[in-house]
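Posting for a labmate who doesn't have an account.
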Amino acid sequence: MKTLKYFVLILLFASCKSVKTTIPTSEYKNLSSKQLVRKVTKSQSKFKTYQAKAKLKINSDGNRKSYGVSLRIIKNEAIWLSSAAGIVRALLTQDSIYYYNKLDKKYLISDYKTLEDIIGLGLNYNMVENILLSQPINGIRNSTFNAKMSKTGLSYIFNWDLTTDQYKKLKIDNFEGIHKINRYNFKLDLCSFKVFSSGNTATLYEIQYLDFTKIKNQSFTSKISINETFFSQNSTNLEKEGSLINQINIEFKSINLNNKFKLPFKIPNNYTKILINVK
């Protein structure tokens, strides 16, 4: 189950784009929310296929492991992730999630309700792909721009919009999220959301995009840090008192656009189906 959760987190965030480039303060502009929305929309990644190799370093409760992985995306169609030698693979399509692990001989076939069960947030394929491409998960609007917070840092900040039909079932006091937009390339600097559970506990997911590379005049991330922090009911300050339970660092070794490739995926016979049981 832990391996599946790692793959879900990686699929959500492993291909987000963001470049850490030092820009003189004088070059920053105080743009209106309308101008920002236009620039973020214009900065969306343009390609037919995306292919990358990366090194993963995982720290789970003090246990550290490293993996080599391959990531492939056919835009608007499929996302494919494979560990070295295809030991663990995952495939996301518009309506389904497929996963298997040859080491424990288990597999999963499910819809996107599984992601909600695992991380506490409802998602669909387009939302996942948006995160992978460092684009706001469900879009940004003029009304969600946080001008006050944006003045305190080097990113433009938009509150996570919870007004779409898919999020109406979530209580607004049970969810907090923000997007930080890079002032240089208008990709995400950070995607952060906190899901509250019963008993005043919460889980905070923070995805930071640490370095960029330019490919065909587009900015793609080369380093990402993903943190999952748990806050217990005894925490008096949910911003400062938390326990880091999972951390994933991703360093991209190569990225190629618009190459032809296949997405090999076949669940071996006699594997046991994973049953998601989230209380």
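Reply:
Got it, the structure tokens are right above this. The longest helix spans residues 2-13.
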